[in-house]
Specification:
Blueprint lengths: L6 E8 L3 H9 L1 H8 L1 E3 L8 E6 L8 E10 L3 E6 L16 E10 L2 E9 L6 H27 L1
Antiparallel strand pairs: 1-7, 2-3, 3-4, 4-5, 5-6, 6-7
Helix pairs in contact: 1-2
Length: 151
């Protein structure tokens, strides 16, 4: 069982069909639109795609998303380096966290659960801030995907 500092969990009931939510997650261009990043390529299991954050003030942040699994309309997962804020720091030697998007058809739409785990493996000096910032980040990302799939 993951500790309370190792895992972030967020759930949202989206008033959109599961196929629509899946497209918003699995299509790298569309994912980038609501998430706020520009990716250089598509999502393919076992491969990495690189990109940068597009939120104002964060454009200097480059990131790598290593796709783990894509089970259509059910599960999309990837690994990344959480909260890579310092452009002078090489995060490539650090462990990556695992982000999982679980989709479930429910009455009037889709239940989307996001789970990010692996924070306890991060270097102690980064662990608490990365967890805190990503916890808040996922809260706002849930609102962003909700607006996106409703439009």
């Amino acid at each position: 069982m993951a500790s309370s500092t190792d895992c972030i969990r967020k759930k949202i009931h989206l008033r959109a069909p599961r196929a629509r939510v899946w497209k918003a997650l699995a299509d790298a261009t569309e994912f980038g639109t609501w998430f706020g990043m520009k990716l250089e390529g598509g999502f393919i299991p076992g491969q990495s795609v690189h990109g940068r954050i597009t939120h104002p003030g964060y454009e200097h942040i480059r990131l790598e998303v290593k796709v783990e699994r894509m089970e259509p309309e059910s599960l999309f997962s990837y690994r990344w380096h959480p909260y890579p804020m310092d452009p002078k720091k090489d995060y490539s030697k650090e462990p990556m966290t695992l982000v999982e998007f679980h989709l479930q058809a429910v009455e009037d739409g889709t239940l989307l659960q996001v789970v990010e785990s692996g924070f306890d493996q991060l270097p102690p000096e980064r662990r608490d801030e990365a967890f805190r910032m990503n916890d808040g980040g996922w809260t706002s990302q849930m609102a962003r995907i909700e607006r996106h799939v409703a439009s």
